[in-house]
Specification:
With 258 residues, this protein is mostly helical. The chain has one domain. The protein has a two-stranded antiparallel sheet. A hairpin with a 2-residue loop joins β1 and β2. It starts with a helix and ends in a 6-residue tail after the last helix. 41% of the residues are buried.
Length: 258
Amino acid sequence: MARAPARQLIGFWTLFSKEVLRFWKVGFQTIAAPVLTALLYLLIFSHVLEGRVQVHGVVYTAFLIPGLVMMQVLQNAFANSSSSLIQSKVTGSIVFVLLPPISHTAFFLAYVLAAVVRGLAVGVCVLAVTAWFAPLRVEAPGWILAFALFGGGILATLGVIAGIWAEKFDQLAAFQNFLVMPLTMLSGVFYSIHSLPPFWQGLSHYNPVFYMIDGFRYGFFGVSDVSPLVSLAVVVGCFAAVSLFTLGLLKRGWKLRH
């Protein structure tokens, strides 16, 4: 009989593989559609603002591309974990995930890592499609990877929280429309916060997604609105906080087992 750690590893890998296959089999919807959305954003905003706006000495289209890439990483990481859980709860198939002896930690890691994989897959595709529109340089690839992983991890974890909390699809939509969407759209994807009035600049510093976008963009151009070390500290701290909170919910079985 397999030992407990081996059983947990098998359970984790099985659940992780199932979540990856879930979005991969409908790649036209889960990968191609977000890429098209990002491309439309790029075409519209670059057409309107190219030549009129320059940020940190970077042409606007080049400045915009990393923001769009990271935005799609975040939004799709959230969508993967949240949609999977709410679908399982609504259809009743969640019982087949809860019955096997999988620990709450393995459950958490499987959903979060699979969501991060989807986010990164979409991000790479968006970058491949949009990089043709402006010259991009990569100053610090390690920073790019770090912010993509931790940022995707935060939104994937928020997706788990939303999937646990929501009991129907409109509740999940409310979570996404009134929390995730405003945080990502108002995080500096389309602008530098230094272009905002002082009040809104200050308010932007309370948005954790701003630090994800700004740090990710630093990896390309070597310039940012705040220090990348500060951004990384905020992002890692947020990831630790939401992860511990989610692990606590899963351990209690809140809205899943009870």
